[in-house]
Amino acid sequence: MANEQLGLVEKHFADIIWDNEPISSTNLVKLAREKLQWKKSTTYTVLKRLCEKGFFKNEGGAVTSLVSRDEYLSSISYKFVNDTFHGSLPSFVAAFSAIQQISDKEWEEIRKMIEEKDD
Fold first, then answer.
1. How far is CA 36 from the centre of its chain?
2. Which fold would CATH assign to domain 8-67?
3. Alpha helix locations (H) across the chain?
């Protein structure tokens, strides 16, 4: 899996691919023009860079992911908690809940995740 983090613009572009894959490079150019106002050359340049980083592949004009959106988000979330909170998920949750209200439904989902992990 790619160990690099995507920049904001790269993430928007990656979302287009993840939302539409497999996608032809022709359709990707059209969507990037519509959603990002990119020229064809920009689309192919960024696509090539993300392929080199190991996120996607472009074979025969078909673009598919090598790293799913969920895998990517899990990876950057892990890195953030590890780097910022020394790997402590409780410290992260405490900091998050201090500035962002966590709903009863979300707490229930967290509780269920913990209970399922214990099984």
1. 17
2. Arc Repressor Mutant, subunit A (1.10.10)
3. 8-20, 25-36, 40-52, 69-85, 89-99, 104-118
The domain ranges of the chain are: 8-67, 70-118
- Cβ pair 63, 21 in contact under 8 A: yes
pLDDT digits (tens, 9 = 90+) for 96-117: 999 999 999 999 998 998 888 8
Which distant-in-sequence residues (6+ apart) come within 8 Å of 91 by Cβ? 85
79 within 8 A of 3, measured Cβ to Cβ: no
What's the pTM value of the predicted model, to 2 decimals? 0.82
Per-residue model confidence as pLDDT tens digits over 67-106: 999 999 999 999 999 999 999 989 999 999 999 999 999 9
Question: What angle do the packed helices 8-20 and 69-85 form, to 10 degrees?
Answer: 150
If you search the block for the tokens 């392929």, which residue do you land on?
A: 51
CA 29, 32, 33, 39 dihedral sign is negative
Location of structure tokens 């809940």: 97
